[in-house]
Every structure is written in C-alpha cells, then in structure tokens.
Amino acid sequence: MLFSSAFTAAALLAAQAAAHGAVTSYVIGGTTYPGYEGFSPSSGPKTIQRQWPDYNPTTSISDKKVMCNGGTSADLNASVAAGSKVRAVYKQWTHQQGPVMVWMYKCKGDFKSCDGSGVNWFKIDQEGMTAPPLSGNSWGTAKVYKNLYWESTIPKSLAAGNYLIRHELLALHQANAPQFYAECAQLIVTGSGTSVPSGAFLAKIPGYAAQSDPGVTVDTYGSKATTYTCPGPAVWTG
C-alpha cells in the first residue's frame, strides 16, 4: 500500500509537470540566453530571466504571481536594439486554445529597484484566435505548441532604457478556468528612439483585466462565439 501510494503520488507529479510549460531560453541578436528549466527549478545558470518557483499556472488574474510567475530578480540583462527581434523558447507546451501576449515595462532606474509596479505595462505583441471555432487550434498558443517559440519585434521607436519583457500564455482549454503562464526577463533597449506609450496603452499587472472579462473566463468548447478579444489594452507599435 505504501508503495502504491508513493507510486501514485509520483505519477501525479509527473503528469502535472508534463501538462505545463515556461520560457526556458531567449534568442536575442543571435545570442542565446539560457533561462530556468524543469518543473520546479531551485537554481540555474546566471540568466536574464527572473527566477520562477515552478511552472504551475496562476489561476487568478488578481494574484501577484501573475506578473512574472513569482520572479523578482535576475543576475544578468541582455542588450537589444529597438526594431530587432526577441525569441522566447519553450522546452514544452501542451495547450492549443488561448492567446499569447507579450508585454514590456520601462524601469525608472536599475533592475534591482524595478519591481513592475504601477500602471506602466504595455503590450508589444499578441495573438488570440485567428479563425473559429474557439475549440480549434487557430490560436497564438497553438503556434507555440507547434513551434516551441514565440518571436516578437521591439518597436523601433521605443526609447532606450532598462525594461522588463513579459511573455504570457493564457491557456483556455478548461471551461471558465483560465491558466496564466508568464515569465519575465531583463532587457536594455538601445537605439535612437524617443517614444514611450501612454494613456490607454498602459496597464497594471496584476489588474490589467477582471477575472470576469470574456477574454479570460470563456468556455472554448461550449460557447458559440466566433470571435475573441484578448484581455487588456491594445498593442502599442510605436
């Protein structure tokens, strides 16, 4: 009986770990920056990624863990020229219904004091459902499932400075039970740009939408809706 219980617990843990995913590395300007790997990484190489405790999802949009999956600091940062691409790489991803949203946050000073607080987050990229039905695989997360990466362009006009970049996958495969997967990394944006978003492009995390938002709480198998709108503000392109 003890053996059976231990085996069952181990099997459940393995199944749980196999069901989720996280950003495990970044490719920026031809350089690969390792991130954290494994279901619950206790340590890893020095990295630009803010360390996360595990890749269990956050299930409440108001939970502070939704910001960077609990990550608060990183040892390194990566330089990226405005107008160039950032690729987030996933070792695994298993869900095909839900949007991908890529956010940035301009730090007021150095990274140690950059906590992501306030109404300063903005989107630079997103993809929700591109064709019905909701239960199909015409979603941003389905592309991550297929390719195991997501690539975005830093707006060319973005002002230089220290930024956090946040890759968020919102899994909607369970009816009215959203799962948020988000990781953050530290970037130094270079270039001659002078623009920063303002007004309706800015949001607070947590707090960019309500749990009841139709883009958050949706029954992808029971709903007859033929369109989908990603939660939060519109994408800022510069």
UniProtKB/TrEMBL annotation:
<dbReference type="InterPro" id="IPR005103">
    <property type="entry name" value="AA9_LPMO"/>
</dbReference>
<keyword id="KW-0624">Polysaccharide degradation</keyword>
<dbReference type="GO" id="GO:0030245">
    <property type="term" value="P:cellulose catabolic process"/>
</dbReference>
<feature type="domain" description="Auxiliary Activity family 9 catalytic">
    <location>
        <begin position="20"/>
        <end position="228"/>
    </location>
</feature>
<keyword id="KW-0964">Secreted</keyword>
<dbReference type="GO" id="GO:0008810">
    <property type="term" value="F:cellulase activity"/>
</dbReference>
<keyword id="KW-0119">Carbohydrate metabolism</keyword>
<dbReference type="InterPro" id="IPR049892">
    <property type="entry name" value="AA9"/>
</dbReference>
<comment type="function">
    <text>Lytic polysaccharide monooxygenase (LMPO) that depolymerizes crystalline and amorphous polysaccharides via the oxidation of scissile alpha- or beta-(1-4)-glycosidic bonds, yielding C1 and/or C4 oxidation products. Catalysis by LPMOs requires the reduction of the active-site copper from Cu(II) to Cu(I) by a reducing agent and H(2)O(2) or O(2) as a cosubstrate.</text>
</comment>
<keyword id="KW-1015">Disulfide bond</keyword>
<keyword id="KW-0136">Cellulose degradation</keyword>
<protein>
    <recommendedName>
        <fullName>AA9 family lytic polysaccharide monooxygenase</fullName>
        <ecNumber>1.14.99.56</ecNumber>
    </recommendedName>
</protein>
<dbReference type="GO" id="GO:0030248">
    <property type="term" value="F:cellulose binding"/>
</dbReference>
<dbReference type="GO" id="GO:0005576">
    <property type="term" value="C:extracellular region"/>
</dbReference>
<keyword id="KW-0732">Signal</keyword>
<feature type="signal peptide">
    <location>
        <begin position="1"/>
        <end position="21"/>
    </location>
</feature>
<dbReference type="Pfam" id="PF03443">
    <property type="entry name" value="AA9"/>
</dbReference>
